[in-house]
Every structure is written in C-alpha cells, then in structure tokens.
Design a protein that fits this description.
By secondary structure, this protein is of the alpha+beta class. The chain has 12 helices and 23 strands. It is about 20% helix and about 30% strand. Keywords: Ubl conjugation pathway.
C-alpha cells in the first residue's frame, strides 16, 4: 500500500493516484540474459483496499486458471466478476467517465503475476492427496454440523422449547416473585409439540435422575397483576394430552419442576388435593441486613388457620419456636399487605387465594425499630420498586467502563455520594459528580453538592433503554470548598 506523509495533518495518508497495470506483462527487455522462454507474465490476483490509512475493507480478485475468468472474494462471499471489474475499476485516481473531481479511495495495493510458461505447473489441479487430512476432517465436520442445523431449521415447526426451573434457582433472589426471568438458570428441553405430558415428565426425570413419581410440574403463568407464579396441572386429565394443547401454544413454555427433598426420605411426592390444598411459597425478611431468604414451599389445606403456619415458618427461618412473626402477602410489585387475624382460615385471610401465592414473614419485634433503615418488608419492597442500575464512570479516564451499582431513585445527593464513596473506599466529600449528556455519551454539567433533587432527577434526561450513567472524578480538596472558590484573572502591570 502506498503512503505519504502529510505535514498539515501530521500523519501518513494513503495515495489514491491512478496507477494502471496490464493483464499481461512482458519483462524481456529487463532481463540481463535472454531466457529460453518469453518473460511474459499473466495477472493472477489483484488485492484491493477500500478506505484510508486508518481502516477500510479488503477484497481480492483471482484469475484461478489464468484464462481471464475472474472471481471476486469479498469476505465469505465468492462470485464471478468481469475482467473490467477486477482490473480497470481498481486503477484508482479520478473517475474520468463521470467527470468528477473526487478521487477513488478504492485501488489495488498488491498484484500477483505468474510467468505464462509456468502456468500449468503453478496452477495445476489440486488432488485429494494434496489436501492435509486435518483440513479434510474439518471440512467434513463443518458439513455435518451444517446438515444438522438445516435439519433443525426444517423441523423447527414440529418442536417447542420448554424452560425448566428448579427450586434452587429461587434461593438468593432479592426481588419480586420467585426468580428473575432474565437471570434464571433454565434447563432447556426441546420436545415435539405432539408429545404428551407423560413423555415430557419421563424425559425430565431421566435428565434429573429422579423417578417420575418424585417430580411434579407447575407451569409458570403471568397473572393479570403482572406477577409470574406457578399454577396447577391436573395430572389425572392432562397426563396424556399433547404439550401443544397444555401449554396454549407457548414457546418457550416455562415450568417449575417440584422434586422430593433428598433428606425427606420420601419415595414419592406428597399427594396434592386440587380442591382443598393450596401451594404456598415463603420468604423470610431480615431487616437488619435488608435481605430476603427463600424458605421453601408448603401444601396447606385452605380451611386451616394461618396461625398454624407460624411454627413451620420459625423452623424454616432458623428462629426459636415461639418467636412472634408478622406475616405479609406479596401481591405484586410495590404492593405487600399484612395478614391480620391469623386465627381465621387461610381462605378467609389471603386475598383471592391461589396456588403460587407468596407469604413474606419477619420478626414482629423489629417491625417498627427506629434504628433500622427498612424495618418492614413493606418498606423493603417499596425501596426495591424504585431501585435502578446506575453505571459510574471516571471522568478523567475516557475509556473507563465504570462500575454498576443498584441504587434507589429516591436517594438524595448525600446518600448517593456515600454509596459511591464506600465502593471507591474514599471520602464522599472528595468526589464530584457530573450528569451524562443526553445527545452523546459523555460527561455533562457538574452536580453541586447542595443539589436538592433525587437520583431520579439526575437521570431524567437519559434515554429509556440506554444504560443510566453518572460520571465522577476524585478531588484533592473537599467538594464544598471547590464549589465555593471563585475564578478570577490575574493581571500584571509593568510600569516603565
């Protein structure tokens, strides 16, 4: 490739001047001694670059047999092309035919010629013996994989994907519902749509190494209040129905698979009466650490009093028996209602009792503790509703990817500064923050330390689906001192 130094831009620039090259090149006049065969060379390949010194695109034109029939290799696309496209169009320079003053940025930068008398030797046919066995194996493997993919594409309409989630995926979840669909560790099963539920359960049981009688499917359905909860399948009537009918043509179809606890000693799951039992899930809220702990599930008769759950919940949470608990029903995001009158039947206490309902419980004596930031689970879920992921980037490092923190949009400046300072292990008063520009990715105006708005106000200009960014820089003096300083110009007078 040809370059020259441009003193105006202080950089090398690509030379796009016109340079013509022939299809056949005779070099006899340059030989020191005449050869037995003419020194005539045939153009075999033209390597072409489009762009400038900083980047571009590469294409190669090849005359495979030296007979003037050209092929164009553009990435993974190989096509026939004319001799004019391979040669004449790559001279570079001005486009005289169109009378334009704009120069081509596409031109040849490497030419490959083969001596005409050696064409048969150089371009002889490639036999299978010439190809390394490793390359043959690789090509055959690629063909095999392509055939499998083609078969899958042709038969895709006959299959459906079923996303299986197990109870261990519920542990550690700190949000609404039982798990985060975007972060869940699904086990994917590809099954035929006309397969029965019995066929699917046998496939799952074989994969999980459980007998069929030790697993039970609970499809996860979206309720009208936008919560995702397990629902009952009537195994007596649905066991031999096709999956397409049971799943309502959902693809993928998400199913929670309940399994026998390994330490229970049971050889089969406990019987579930669809008319009188209900499937409940439990979460324990620890206000001191502001964390939720998944405490399993339980079948309960709808006529039993809610108070009968308390000993079980104390045991699940590792609390002493007799500990007074406050029970709440998690209805939907930002809506958690306390259960009152625990001596009444479950069906009378829970609003619209359904399989998959979630009960959140906590110690009653910590419910109104003034020393706790989020003393009740109602406070926790309200705070969770306003949480947002914010990326903090160092303003002084242009390529800094930043770090992500999950913060409440209701935070004020001081709370945000303390959270970021704790992450950076520095003093919050030695940090200065900058809003992100709305029209491009970069720091905007600084945020004063006396800012009276919330984190939500700082992010108001961000586009909905773009990452929410705030820039910062670490200071050598306190931010309040920096903002109280005034800029002035120093003038020097010289009297003669």
């Amino acid at each position: 490739m040809r370059f020259q130094y441009d003193p105006i831009t202080d950089s090398n620039v690509k030379i796009n001047d016109r340079y013509e090259f022939p299809e056949k090149l005779n070099m006899d006049q340059f030989l020191q001694k005449p050869d037995t065969t003419p020194a005539t060379y045939v153009l075999h390949a033209v390597l072409v670059h489009s762009g400038d010194n900083h980047g571009g695109h590469y294409v190669v034109f090849i005359n495979p047999k030296g007979d003037g029939r050209w092929c164009k290799f553009d990435d993974d696309v190989v096509s026939r092309c004319s001799k004019q496209e391979a040669i004449d169009h790559n001279f570079g320079g001005h486009e005289d035919d169109l009378n334009l003053t704009v120069k081509h940025c596409t031109n040849a930068y490497m030419l490959v010629y083969i001596r005409e008398s050696c064409l048969r030797t150089v371009l002889q046919e490639v036999t299978e013996e010439d190809i390394p066995q490793e390359l043959i194996d690789r090509l055959q493997e690629e063909k095999r994989i392509e055939m499998i993919r083609r078969k899958e594409r042709n038969e895709a309409h006959l299959y459906m994907n079923i996303q299986v989630i197990l109870e261990d995926s519920f542990s550690g979840h700190q949000g609404n519902d039982l798990y985060d669909p975007d972060k869940a560790n699904y086990r994917i099963f590809r099954v035929k749509k006309n397969a029965t539920l019995q066929d699917f359960l046998e496939q799952v049981a074989d994969s999980l190494k459980y007998p069929v009688e030790q697993i039970r499917p609970w499809p996860l359905n979206l309720r009208t209040n936008q919560t995702n909860r397990p629902t009952l399948l009537d195994l007596e009537t649905d066991l031999h129905k096709p999956l397409l009918e049971i799943s309502d043509n959902a693809n993928p179809w998400t199913v929670f698979i309940e399994t026998v606890s390994p330490d229970s000693g049971l050889k089969a799951l406990t019987a579930f009466d669809k008319d009188s039992d209900v499937l409940l899930f439990f979460k324990y809220y620890d206000p001191r650490h502001k964390r939720l702990h998944y405490c399993g599930h339980h079948y309960m008769h709808i006529s039993f009093n809610v108070q009968e759950l308390v000993p079980l919940l104390n045991e699940r949470a590792g609390l002493p028996q007799g500990t007074e608990l406050a029970l709440f029903e998690e209805i939907k995001p930002n809506l958690v209602e306390r259960l009152a009158d625990l001596d009444r039947p479950l069906e009378k206490v829970l609003d619209e009792l359904m399989d998959g309902d979630i009960i959140v419980f906590q110690r009653d004596d910590l419910l109104d503790d003034p020393n706790l930031e989020l003393p009740s689970c109602r406070d926790y879920f309200r705070d969770l509703f306003f949480r947002v992921e914010v990326t903090f980037c160092d303003k002084t490092v242009p390529t800094d990817p930043g770090f992500i923190m999950e913060l409440s949009q209701r935070m004020n400046y001081d709370q945000m500064a303390r959270a970021v300072a704790h992450r950076l292990d520095t003093d919050p008063y030695l940090l200065q923050f900058f809003k992100s520009q709305s029209y491009r990715d970069g720091p905007g105006n600084p945020v004063r330390c006396t800012y009276e708005g919330t984190l939500k106000d700082m992010l108001v200009c961000m586009k909905p689906r773009h990452p929410k960014k705030i820039y910062y820089q670490q200071l050598s003096i306190r931010i309040n001192e920096l903002e109280n300083k005034r800029q002035f110009k120093a003038c020097r007078y010289l009297f003669i």
